[in-house]
Write a structure and sequence with these properties.
Layout: H1 4-10, H2 16-21, E1 30-32, E2 38-40, H3 42-48, E3 55-61, H4 71-84, E4 89-93, H5 98-102, E5 110-111, E6 114-117, H6 119-123, H7 129-149, E7 156-161, E8 165-167, E9 177-179, E10 190-192, E11 194-196, H8 201-208, H9 212-221, E12 223-227, E13 232-234, H10 241-247, E14 255-259, E15 264-267, H11 282-291, E16 294-298, H12 303-318, E17 324-329, H13 331-337, H14 350-369, E18 374-379, H15 386-398, E19 402-406, H16 408-411, H17 417-429, H18 444-456, E20 460-463, H19 465-476, E21 484-487, E22 507-516, E23 521-526, E24 545-546, E25 552-553
Helix pairs in contact: 7-8, 7-10, 9-10, 13-14, 14-15
């Protein structure tokens, strides 16, 4: 079998104008970025905004394991399958981050014959959206420190600066730094921090903003620091909004590319789901719903993170209502959750499968809490036995879910026809009664406790004293009605990544809380989650290269 990058490089891409024509997008509504990439103009939205919405399908998964699940691959393959069935379908995805690309995960554009292309462009610089977000974030940081240096008219307390610099790379050495060293003219000495770009509030703002006016209003609300007497200081007070918006004027436009089967794909924005809200942009999703009859989108990591945030934050904020949820798992990953070492996952083991399927069970129950019908799909591996597949199928159907096998990695859209038929059946026969998990009127503490108990399954929730002080301050500032964005590790339902399956009697530890006033949610940091990841001992970057003809190798 060829590698993902070999398949992507051999794909026969259509000029992006021909891909756009499948969605009835005219030439004048595209801003071209070469032959195979384009941004959708603001004028296009004005043309389509009054159309009836298509059906919204969310793809999520069980907690990720080293065995692999294939959530993005399934998303792409389902979109390709719908296209093969002559359905007007479009895929809506997040953009990959350079951090994991050069760190552990490698590329993030799907896999096999279910991936989006041009794969190298998407995984590296793409259309420059992440660079624009990084620049806007760091411009605000520079203006903040310059204001303090130039007399500090706003009375900013350097020990209460909360705005962090960012870069789109895993660089643990930048987590905690000291700036302003040197001469007096080199700035005020203070502790500073870097986060990865996908954790920047500006990434969240870009992904939740409806238009440029909304973007600027959200940027203006960003809290960057507090004064000596505890009052918040915003980006608007620093007069940074206009310049930040100028840097983001193209980044706010959704990107159009295609799959290896030439299915249209809108790829825009990319907040991580473990440290941010994990969904592609509202603009891309809403535009897709106006352009197609079926929109297949995904949310990051497991359903306890990405799906919960998609449903509780994105849908709440944007007025979206999903028609179905596809929950992705593999027999291998379920056996891993049942205690089988990675090297032994190819052997039939029904006992381990029965033990590990409780992880899938919890995610099914969680999706059902939101009132949305659920389809479970297994990414099929050659090592899966008939007995194992039959057991999972029977388990899911007893839980009230449709079930389908998926072979999209190997067969592309053809391998997703069974799943597509189950999704279409579900949409046509099972009505969605979507509702968020919690009401806006609950206190922030109650919202965090509800997510922890109902979605994660925690018995108790503890708050560090500092977190409780931060919660009180945030509510006093008038942000108590906002939804919560839980920053938690992705590998376990708990905040301990070593607790697999369906842990019980565990405690969620909330150690830090802060408000993202522009994005419109409150972030809770749990366990040991980091907003600036580090590289592994052997980074993926070590195998990536480019030959004399400019062909990139080793990306995945």
């Amino acid at each position: 079998m060829k590698s993902d990058i070999e398949i992507a490089q051999e794909a026969k891409m259509l000029p992006i104008g021909q891909v756009a024509a499948k969605l009835d997008i005219q030439e004048e509504d595209l801003d071209y970025y070469g032959k195979y990439k384009a941004k959708l103009t603001d004028e296009l939205w004005d043309k389509v905004k009054d159309r009836k919405d298509g059906k919204l399908i969310l793809v999520t998964a069980i907690n990720p394991t080293p065995a692999g699940e294939g959530k993005t691959t399934t998303t792409v393959g389902l979109g390709e399958a719908l296209g093969r069935m002559d359905k007007k379908a479009v895929i809506a995805l997040r953009e990959p981050s350079l951090g994991p690309c050069f760190g552990i995960k490698g590329g993030a554009a799907g896999g096999g014959y279910a991936q989006v292309v041009p794969m190298e462009d998407l995984n590296l610089h793409f259309t420059g959206d992440f660079h624009a977000i990084t620049s806007a974030n760091n411009l605000l940081a520079a203006m903040l420190d310059n204001h303090i240096q130039q007399g500090n008219a706003l009375g900013i307390d350097p020990k209460q600066v909360v705005w962090k610099r960012c870069e789109d790379m895993n660089d643990r050495a930048l987590r905690n730094i000291v700036i302003g060293m040197g001469r007096k003219m080199d700035g005020v000495v203070r502790e500073d921090h870097f986060i990865i770009t996908v954790a920047s509030e500006i990434m969240a703002i870009l992904c939740l903003a409806e238009n440029m006016e909304d973007l600027k209003e959200r940027l203006a609300k960003i809290i960057v620091a507090y004064t000596y007497d505890g009052k918040p200081v915003t980006a608007q007070q620093l007069k940074a909004v206009g310049a930040m918006a100028a840097l983001l004027k193209d980044a706010i436009k959704p990107n159009l590319i295609q799959t290896v089967e030439n299915t249209p794909a809108l790829v825009h924005g990319g907040p991580f789901a473990n440290i941010a809200h994990g969904c592609n942009s509202v603009r891309a999703t809403k535009t897709a719903l106006k352009l197609a009859d079926y929109v297949v989108t995904e949310a990051g990591f497991g359903a306890d993170l990405g799906a919960e945030k998609f449903l509780d934050i994105k849908c709440r904020k944007a007025g979206l209502s999903p028609d179905a949820v596809v929950l992705v798992a593999t027999v291998r990953a379920l056996k891993y959750n049942g205690g089988v070492p990675k090297d032994n996952l190819s052997q039939e083991n029904l006992d381990a499968l029965k033990k590990g399927i409780v992880n899938l069970e919890k995610h099914i129950e969680n999706i059902q809490k939101f009132g949305v019908p659920c389809v479970v799909t297994l990414n099929r591996f050659v090592s899966d036995t008939d007995a194992e597949l039959a057991y999972v199928k029977e388990f899911c159907e007893k839980k009230g879910c449709e079930f389908a096998l998926s072979e999209v990695w190997e067969k592309g859209g053809e391998g997703g026809i069974e799943l597509a038929n189950k999704v279409l059946y579900t949409i046509e026969n099972k009505e969605s009664h979507f509702k968020p998990l919690y009401e806006d009127s609950l206190s922030l503490k109650e919202k965090m406790e509800k997510v922890s108990r109902e979605i994660y399954g925690a018995k108790e929730v503890t708050f560090e004293p500092q977190a409780l002080k931060e919660l009180q301050k945030i509510e006093e500032l008038g942000f108590g009605n906002l939804p919560v964005c839980m920053a938690k590790n992705q590998y376990s339902l708990s905040d301990d990544p070593t607790l697999l399956g369906r842990p019980e009697n565990f405690t969620i530890h909330i150690r830090e809380v802060y408000v993202s006033a522009g994005a419109g949610f409150v972030v809770a940091i749990t366990g040991t989650i980091m907003t600036m990841p580090g590289l592994p001992k052997v980074p993926a970057a070590e195998r990536i290269g480019v030959d004399t003809n400019g062909v990139i190798t080793g990306l995945f």
